[in-house]
Amino acid sequence: MGTLLKEAAIPGTLDGTPLEVLEEMSPEEQFSWALRVYGDRAGIITSFQDTGCAMIDLMRQAAPGMRVLTIDTLRLAEESYRHIKHVEARYGITVERFQPNPERLARMVTQHGEFLFFDSKPKQEHCCSVRKVEPNERALASLDVWFTGLRRDQSAFRATTKRAQWVERSGRHILKLAPLAAWSAEEVRTYMAANNVPLHPLYAQGYTSIGCVICTTPTRPQEATRAGRWRWFNHLDQDSKECGIHISGSGI
User: Fold this and answer.
1) Which of 24, 32, 107 is nearest to 63 (CA)?
2) Residue 243 catalytic?
3) Residues in CB range of 159: below 8 A, 6 or more apart
4) Which of 24, 45, 85, 223 has the most Cβ atoms closer than 10 angstroms to its Cβ?
5) Domains of the chain: which residue ranges?
6) Alpha-carbon distance 197 to 182, whole Å?
7) 15-202: what fold?
8) pLDDT in tens for each of the 252 residues of the chain?
């Protein structure tokens, strides 16, 4: 993880709103503020799990027209692709899809094989870098405000997630907002049920965290939420089970 940025280097929001004020805003207020101040430079990046879909529903009420982006690793479950289409139809939106660089992807598979993620943690991280992190960086290049579905109850690593922070990506600052960071899984599901928000069908099959095919499996009731991610690495520190999207750069 990069070093913390010097205080003098921290930018301000375009309208001067302090982070402390953004931190205390409701999710609806954050969405409305971001669209009003940043326009099409604000957007939700989501994998269409429960929190992401709840955010889309809140956004459509408070800030209709805000961009919705996703990272298509080209290894998502068929249920995920169908679910994205369902959400698009439900809310009348067009999701922007960012995919791996074809040349980098072909080179990785040629050098390490299609299933390199089984070999070692570094190779799993390399696969995630090619399929997820680099496309995510391209998506972020089009944004100044990044809405994410991180929640504090998802893992120990995410327990200190801020609702508003500056992060550094590719030498510039992006305002990262996690409007539902303080919500519990139960609160998210209650909201979704009350508002008829589409729920990813893999949850009904025992999944509690959803990513690529093979690298995501169902979890047992006593297991941690992210135990189904890269299950063959469950002997390692569970906080190391991140793809890299939320750990590169500096948080302020």
Assistant:
1) 32
2) yes
3) 152, 153
4) 45
5) 15-202
6) 19
7) Rossmann fold (3.40.50)
8) 333 444 446 789 999 999 999 999 999 999 999 999 999 999 999 999 999 999 999 999 999 999 999 999 999 999 999 999 999 999 999 999 999 999 999 999 999 999 999 999 999 999 999 999 999 999 999 999 999 999 998 878 888 899 999 999 888 999 999 999 999 999 999 999 999 999 999 999 999 999 999 999 999 988 888 889 999 988 765 555 455 454 444 333
